[in-house]
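Lecture 7 notes: from sequence to structure.

We start with a single chain of 500 residues. Read the sequence below before looking at the structure.
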Amino acid sequence: MSATVMVEEHSWESWPPRAFSTIMYIFWVAVLVLYFTPLGKTSQVPLKHNDHEDEYLSLESDTDLWNLHEALFENSTSHLIFDTINSLLQHWTNTRYRNGHTIVPATIPAGTILYHGTYSNHIPINPEWVANDAEHARHFCLGRGTADNNRGCWQLTLVVNSPLKILYFDGSSAAKLEGGPLDTQDILLWGKNRPDMLFSEYVRICKLCEWGRKYGIHGFLRMQMGFEIMLCDFSMDVEVVSFLNLATDLVLPPDILPDPSNVSICETLEDPPLPRPTKRPHLPIPNNVRLGMAFDVMEVGTWHNYYPGDTRIRLDLSRAISFYDTDSFPSLVPLRHGKERWYHRVDGISTKDVQTLRNRLDEILTEDQWEHATSVDWRAQFHVITNRYAERLEILRYMALYSCSRQYSVDILPNDIKSFMGCPGVQAMHNNTHDYLSKLPNLTPSEKMMLSAMEDVNKEICRVLVKLWAEGVEWGLVPWKDVADQETSYENFWMGGRLR
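Now the structure, written as tokens:
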């Protein structure tokens, strides 16, 4: 009888699950260490020599910076700066979070068409509002008279013949609502919120144009149902394309619409204004006409809901001012503490911080500062991060919180995270990019603020994903759901509320 030698085969499948999880955890920690330790020199010849090459390639190796259990400090606003900058000129996010916190210089390029709806056949000699879309202006194209004497309305079309310098207030900054949408304009003009000025739009436009005249500002960009521009002078850098008399069912009596005047209204306005009426006058407009025109305006707004938003505006983010910048506006930090983002306001800002705002605006709007901008496309930099992570983080959150399959949680979900989290490889590349950008000459304070926000958000995404993967493999599904819910709530801010 021949002896049979039995050889016991050992494979990873026979290992205890916890031992395997521990080994995989150690493996990924080791990978992180390898990626985030300083890189040594290699024999590869660079395409172009850079005197600062060693500095750019050197990654921070402080292990405290990569503690998977340590999130950003409680009052960090990096995610808020990231989302507000990333959402500029986009209708939906600025509708959802209507209290604006950003002021940005911008230009409207030559060739841009603007529209103004009115009841008068006179070119305005006073500051007035123009819309970026014809449907928006048509909403204000009103007839003056009676139903039997309907002379129609007037729609003025203008073309920009030389770039217009404007200042952009983000959020729903044209909404006549209490609670914060007009805060940034009020703070600039009066140093505090002015509820008594809620419907005093002519006072507001006259005072803004008066303030901006010394900086050569042509107007101010705001948003409500769509984007509009408070144009200070219809005789400068714009010319008439057409001035059409249109048929309209919106005919209002003369006592509601005053006679057209050639007198400057800015010289006769009262500040403070007359007492606010307790009841708005009834406008004899048929309900079907109101609904139809309102729908048209809201539909136009949806055309600019998401990135890239309204592309007819050229933002200069190198001079952006954010009220979420805690170094510049520290008095707002305790006012926001513990509040949902919906309730964040600029109201209550200190006198010192108001002066900081005005000094900063004076600095960035001075004539010799207009051309001093870097060539970095900051909107693209922010969008790369959003495009890489936003949708997949939303899917990950759903699968983590609502999947009831233990098999999915143990065998599939960890691999899903590992496959798209881009850490640490992508993180190392981002660090190189950020390190390079931080050493560019002539970075403005605004650019340094945006770069810091971008670094913090990118690092936090990587920290959360690695932590979720490691603890998901270690713990399994049930205890991990609470961790996933808590950790991914941070990303909810920088994606304009996509998650939840």
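The chain has 16 helices and twelve strands. Keep this in mind for problem set 3.
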